[in-house]
Amino acid sequence: MKTEAANDIVETFKKLNESISRFSEDELNLVPYQGSWTAGQVTQHIILASSGFPELFAGKTEQTTRKPDEKIKDIEGLFLNFDIKMDAPVFLIPEKKEYIKNDLNRKLHKIESELLDCAEKYDLTLTCLDFQVPGFDTFTMYEWIDFALVHTQRHTHQLNHIFKYITKG
To answer: pTM here?
Structure first.
């Protein structure tokens, strides 16, 4: 479970970084079409949603009385369905501002390192009690890592779509 989680973290962030690297500093802050976030805002949203795992995992937990990966199919079924539009909770809506690629990359690298550290350090079968995603019950640490990665994959797909849109000329 730990090795699989670590491999998934590395692969997900590799694809995200490849996607972001394609944007110039100017393109990062272009609104591709009305009602859309910029690539910088999407990246900041990923940062907001993927931050705080060390604190969450160090918080209140309990032994899990179900399969520790039981909710992964539901998480992936929802977040990897690119046909549905979701609205971010208010606390995960990125600020409208000019984003700097190096700042975003630095924050993403820190998050990747923290997730890898958490995957190595903690018993991923434990259930976290301090926070839950609206619409879901509590997650195990393994499910939380999967949530972060699937959410990131969803938005990497969005970044690729934005890039194609703004560079189609």
So the answer is: 0.95
Q: Would you list the DSSP string of the chain?
A: -HHHHHHHHHHHHHHHHHHHHTS-HHHHT---STTPPPHHHHHHHHHHHH--HHHHHHS-EE--SS-TTTTHHHHHHHHT-TTS-----GGGPPPSS---HHHHHHHHHHHHHHHHHHHHHS-TTSEE-S---TTS---BHHHHHHHHHHHHHHHHHHHHHHHHHHH--
Asked if 117 and 6 touch (Cβ cutoff 8 Å), the reply is no
Q: What angle do CA 10, 119, 77 make, to 5 degrees?
A: 70
pLDDT tens digit string along 5-28?
999 999 999 999 999 999 999 999
The two tokens of residue 107 are 């924050």
